[in-house]
Each structure stands twice: as structure tokens, then as C-alpha cells.
Amino acid sequence: MIRISRQRAQDVAYGAIGILAFLALWEYIGVNQLAGLTWPPLSTVLAYLFDPSRQALFTRAMSASFSMVGAGYVAGTLIGVVLACVAHLVVPLREGLGRFSSVVHSIPSIALAPLFIILLSKDWSGMAIATLNVYFIVFIATQSGLAAATRAHHNVFTTLGSGRLTRLVRLEAPAALPSIVSGLKYAVPAAFIGAIIGEWFGATRGLGLLMVSAMQNFQIPLLWSAVLLTSAGSLVSFGLMSLVERYVYARYR
Predict the structure, then answer these.
(1) Cβ-contact 203, 123 below 8 angstroms
(2) Each residue of 1-50: pLDDT tens digit?
(3) Residue 17, class by beta-carbon neighbours within 10 Å (0-12 exposed, 13-18 middle, 19+ buried)?
(4) How far apart are CA 122 and CA 109, in angstroms?
(5) pLDDT digits (tens, 9 = 90+) for 69-81
(6) Count of C-beta atoms within a 10 Å radius of residue 112
(7) Labelling 147: which of 39, 57, 63, 70 has CA 20 to 30 A away?
(8) Which residue, 234, 211, 194, is CA-closest to 111?
């Protein structure tokens, strides 16, 4: 236990050192203009970001983007888990659903955005792309996890006369939890990417819209502020899911 605690403390310390080093390098490059005018110092970006006159702007943008990320994340998770379970239970559908998922995932998100704008609306295209990105990751992770139960456990359930559905709920689903949670962790940045890309195609509000507007009008501090908020949201969410993953691995492995 002491060894594990020390290892965790070292991981946290190394992570903190890495982040501080990156932020210091960011400030150094910006102050000395090593990358030109398009790389402002971190202090300038933070001053712009926390300016009281711009709080309402960033609050509205964050609310719009993060709500699309959350909706896409939940929808993609539900679709991925349900279809993976269906493919696991209905063997003839397994190969077809797998190929369908691979084909959809192979299409660049930026190519699908205009279609979602036509079929849905500008404000919902980000959620749709986030849903697709999350769906594929969760689908693959769930499929892999459902096959993780050992043959010995399957034999026990067969001896007890359990049906396919009972075996799925009481054996295969719990065994798949570590894999599913790992997929959910890696689906977090995919959801953010999908939502931001969708907002680039004419959303009425959101961090992606701020990025496009800032690039078109050469508002460098605004661009970096939007990027910083998006990155921070993704990193915090990823960190929280890492904690959940650690708990699930300790509980079910």
C-alpha cells in the first residue's frame, strides 16, 4: 500500500512538473517572440481571458460547447454500448455492425459536418460529430470487454443453466467494465474534437465559433483563450475519467 501511494505521488509530481514546464516554456516563447506575433505570452492570454468585460462572452461559449460535448458523449456511449451488446448476443449481426462502424469511422468528420447541417441544424452538427466519434471508441471497447470473461466462468454459468441474456448481465458486462471505462476515458478528447469541428461550420455560438472568428479577424488573444478553455475542459474531463478508470480496475480486476 505504501509503495502504491508513493508511486501515485510520484506520478502526480511528475505530471505537475511537466505542466509547469510547458506553461513556463509557453511564456518564454511568447515574451521573446520566438514564434512571431501569433504566439502570445501566457500572461497576455490569461489577462484577456479573465477580463471582466469578456466573462459573459466566454461563459456563453463554454456553455454551448460543453453542452454539445456532454450530449454527444452520452449519446455516443449509449449507442456504442447497446449496439455492441446486440452484436455480442446476435452473432449474425456481429460482423456487419463491426464493418459498418469501421466504415463510418473511416469517413473524416469534416466531410460529414455539412451533411449534419442539412439534416439537423448548424447548432446540432457538433453534437452529431461528437456522437459518432464517441460511438466508435465505446463500441470497440465494449466488444473487446464482453469477450474478456474466462472460459471457466462461462462453463459455470452454462452448468447453472443460464441463458445468453443472464450471462451478459451477470458475467460478461461486469467483466467488460474495465475495458468500457478505458474506452470512455479515451472518448473524452474525441467528443471535444467532434463538437469543436461541428461548430466551425456556422454554429451561432460556442468555442469553435470563437476560434473561427478570431482567425478571420486576427484576434490572437481571443483565439488562444478559446483554445485554452477547450484544452482545459478536455484535460479535466480526461483526468476525472482516469480516476474512475482506476477505481473500476481496482474493483473488477
Answers:
(1) yes
(2) 455 567 777 777 877 888 899 889 999 998 988 888 889 999 999 999 99
(3) exposed
(4) 15
(5) 999 999 999 999 9
(6) 19
(7) 70
(8) 194
Question: Which pTM was predicted?
Answer: 0.88
Give the separation between CA 241 and CA 249, rounded to whole angstroms.
Answer: 12
Listed in sequence order, the residues at least 6 apart from 21 whose beta carbon sits closer than 8 Å to its beta carbon are none
Contact between 206 and 64 (Cβ < 8 Å): yes
Count of beta carbons in the 10 Å neighbourhood of residue 115: 12
Q: Rounded to an integer, what distance in angstroms lies between the CA atom of residue 134 and that of residue 192?
A: 10
| Cell numbers representing residue 195 in the block | 463538437
Annotated domain spans of the chain: 1-46, 56-252
C-alpha cell at 122: 448548424
- C-alpha separations of 61 from 40, 202, 214, 227 in Å: 21, 14, 13, 12
* Number of continuous H segments (helices) and E segments (strands) in the chain: 11, 0
Under 8 Å between Cβ of 68 and 195? yes
CATH number of 56-252: 1.10.3720.10
